[in-house]
Amino acid sequence: MDEPTYDALCLLSFGGPEGPDDVMPFLRNVTAGRNVPDARLAVVAEQYERFGGRSPINDQNLALIDALRAEFAAHDIDLPIYFGNRNWEPYLADTVAQMADDGVANALVLATSAFSSYSGCRQYREDLDRAAAEVGERAPGLHKLRLYYNHPGFVDAVVDRIAEVHRPGARLVFTAHSIPVSMAQWCDYESQLDEMARLVAGRVGADWDLAFQSRSGPPHVPWLEPDINDHLATLAEQCVTEVTLMPLGFVSDHMEVQFDLDFQAAETATSVGIDMRRAPTVGTHPAFVTGLRQLVEERTAGGPVLWVGEAGPWPDPCPAGHCLAPATSTPTGGRPTP
Ligand SMILES: CC1=C(CCC(=O)O)c2cc3nc(cc4[nH]c(cc5[nH]c(cc1n2)c(C)c5CCC(=O)O)c(CCC(=O)O)c4C)C(CCC(=O)O)=C3C
Ligand SMILES: [Fe+2]
């Protein structure tokens, strides 16, 4: 592929409220155009309020940016790093406008989502298209880096994070954000999670399962299962007493990790008599930061294309028609054009 010369990297993430007054407007941004009932928003708002109305996600992304700046400096990569979000400040469109002001002609984009799904992949690409359209002709070219769920840097960091808390003999349970089954059918989310869980568990040497967390939406709409809380109860029935929990589907310990796992799932574990330890997400683990630098060098310096497992590197750009939104979430009810 013919690569342009890149003059910046933009970290693209979900965003989160900075204080109590931000919580409801943030949640309305997240769920705009979708049928998430107000009752569900109220429940989630309460979860943010437990954290003083402030999500840890923005600080975690800033920490990752700091780590990447140091990594770039140590490897003579001369790319300024920008930060833009889908749902909160700094909003992506403002960041793209800033890049245009600064004379950036082409930027690489690193999304904080390792796996393939509408929420974690295509929706970020839609965000980029919308932000570029908003800024107009002077907007830089925005080039998303390929998915890195099977990059050795990510996988090595996951293995190492598990080692921080794992006890030999404990059951290793991986979690990822549940998504509607109607969303899962258009992407490789489940198979990617399954393959990486198997590979990581093999390296740790543990029996393992994959469970899902943080589902929303009405109960009659099917989402990926088992839910982590139900699964802990099932494990207890099988006389499992020690669990290592690894939130494989996330790259930082944001609200959904700290609330849904450290608070809710931990309570479930206690109530069913399981001694559970949660492994940290990759965060700024040096192996992860190295892997992200290699992902950039793949595009800027002819660096090697690295991956582990069977699926091969995620294609760059994404395959047409992949990671589509579920039909019910589009205004027309039809399939969006790829
Ligand atoms: C696959 C996936 C990821 C992982 C990939 C990625 O990282 O992108 C992810 C990440 C995140 N999800 C987050 C927060 C929320 N997700 C929601 C809602 C939803 N997520 C979905 C999927 C995912 N979500 C889906 C299918 C919905 C329902 C419909 C919809 O609205 O699309 C809602 C609305 C209320 C609710 O229904 O729970 C909130 C508040 C935060 C921020 C945490 C913080 O603040 O620290 C993060 C990193
Ligand atoms: Fe989410």
Your description of this structure?
The structure is a single chain. By secondary structure, this protein is α/β, with parallel strands linked by helices. The chain has two domains: 8-148 and 284-329, Rossmann fold (3-Layer(aba) Sandwich); 152-278, 3-Layer(aba) Sandwich (Rossmann fold). Helices cover 42% and strands 13% of the residues. The chain has eleven helices and eight strands. The chain has helices spanning 23-31, 38-49, 57-74, 92-101, 118-135, 152-165, 181-184, 189-204, 228-237, 255-271, 286-300; strands at 8-13, 81-85, 106-111, 141-144, 171-177, 208-213, 242-246, 275-278. The protein has a four-stranded parallel beta sheet with strand order 2-1-3-4, with helices on both faces. A four-stranded parallel beta sheet has the order 6-5-7-8, with helices on both faces. Helix 10 (255-271) links the parallel strand 7 and strand 8 (275-278). Helix 1 (23-31) packs across helix 2 and helix 9 (228-237) runs parallel beside helix 10 (255-271). The chain is globular and about 60 Å long. It starts with 7 loop residues before the first strand and ends in a 38-residue tail after the last helix. The relative contact order is 0.16. Bound molecules: coproporphyrin III (HT9) and fe (ii) ion (FE2). The site of coproporphyrin III (HT9) has 24 residues, from helix 1, helix 2, helix 5 and helix 10.
